[in-house]
């Protein structure tokens, strides 16, 4: 796969609701002001209409007056007029009810999903003279995505960032940013083969903080949100803080990329213009400046989708490398992901760990492919290998940590002095870690393997994986040449290679431990397709 001419792509996506039942809200003002803002700077943007906005001339007449650089698509959440026109009894508390089993496609049978899609697409065509090219939602199931692709040939879709329980629903372990081709069996799972994929790229929305969002605290409404959305301006970070925005742009729009850099800018109208105004104006002005400098390209979602399909026959490898911490707390975070797996490496002020690896398998069937979600707590996931956010407890932080061995054979955590990344090789990322004591650790991520090597000093080294006994874990079994897993009844494995000693035990406080002790220069974790 060739690297793109423009390494950094941005979508301005503003989606539009026609009703806000929770509090009085002027829903027209944000759209009018957002439109004036992007047109003032000559930027292209995508406007996704929820059905109640699609049938309201106050919104559609405004968008009809937009310049040719604006794309109009649809936001697929189910509202009362859409359900009733499709012949489905409305079950919501309000004309728009945000609970997952009411608003999302997973709350309906596959046949009902098709009827809802047909009404939405035909009414859009009646209004604008053509079918929409972009269809977004916080989440859509694989059946609906496949139907929209096969029947209506949509060019692109978008869904929510990874989150745990926020607003009642969970998307966890997926392709962390950029875009992926989903499996025909699972709308959240990247497919490994062209034959098994839905040929519509799904772009991840909102722009997650690559250091802090992963293990952000849980509260009464689920996981805290640290994203590019301009309404977020708390002390943890977010798109309403100018310093955080500039740090985030630098992290995502690097000159060198494994494939391409990407983020989504924008805000749904139901937050109100006053809440988003300052942050959004700052972000859009900064985008215009950086596009003028040739650092990035702002385009519509459909344009990004068509470009992606021309460039990549299957999901490409991508990355995010945060070598500086905007809070100045000594943290660095490297994300790498491709159609086989994702990995996150964290340097926490010298404490080095792999806090997340997720396995991707196109055969892992989503819960709602044929079933209906019964309540607001919908759940999508991939196949965890290690999950520091979900598996840890107060005594044992789950993860995989590089270690050195002392004279008595005890494992000693390494002290990282610096991290450097190299993204010059196609589809690969290499992290070079300078360790205290003069040794160097290299972590080379390729499409189907993670290769670890160490040099520069005496003594053996290895990888130590630890996790406590917590709820929701997969079954984990160490074999001579693999770690075997089973999660929700689905088997998968990580191949182990490299001469050394592999063992499983308990540590001194009773947590699980797998020790991969190297006897020569390399250890390899393999992720062959469907392995």
**Total of DSSP H or I helical runs spanning 4+ residues:** 11
CATH topology of the largest domain, anyone?
A: TIM Barrel
Q: Which structural class do the helices and strands define?
A: alpha+beta
Cα distance, first to last residue?
23 Å
CATH top level class name of the largest domain: Alpha Beta
In helices, the fraction of residues equals 10-25%
- How many domains make up the 3D coordinates? 2
Name the overall outline.
globular
What is the mean pLDDT?
Answer: 94
CATH superfamily of the largest domain: Uncharacterised protein PF12979, DUF3863
Structure description:
- Strands 1, 2, 3, 4, 5, 7, 10, 13 and 14 form a nine-stranded mixed β-sheet that branches.
- It is globular and about 75 Å long.
- By secondary structure, the protein is an alpha+beta fold.
- A hairpin with a 2-residue loop joins β29 and β30.
- α1 packs parallel to α3 and α6 packs across α7.
- It folds into two domains: 255 residues, TIM Barrel, CATH 3.20.20; 208 residues, Beta-galactosidase, Chain A, domain 5.
- The protein is 21% helix and 33% strand.
- The model has no long low-confidence stretch (mean pLDDT 94).
- The chain is built from eleven helices and 33 strands.
Task: Give a short synopsis of this structure.
The chain is an alpha+beta fold. About 20% of the residues lie in helices and about 35% in strands.
Secondary structure blueprint with pairings:
Blueprint (H helix, E strand, L loop, with lengths): L7 E9 L11 H13 L4 E5 L1 H4 L2 H8 L5 E6 L4 H6 L14 H4 L6 H19 L5 E3 L5 H11 L3 E4 L10 E3 L6 E2 L1 E2 L2 E5 L11 E3 L13 E2 L2 E2 L18 H11 L8 E5 L7 H20 L4 E3 L1 H11 L6 E5 L8 E7 L3 E8 L2 E9 L19 E3 L1 E5 H4 L7 E7 L5 E3 L2 E7 L6 E7 L4 E6 L3 E7 L5 E7 L7 E5 L2 E6 L2 E8 L2 E7 L5 E7 L3 E5 L5
Helix pairs in contact: 1-3, 1-9, 6-7
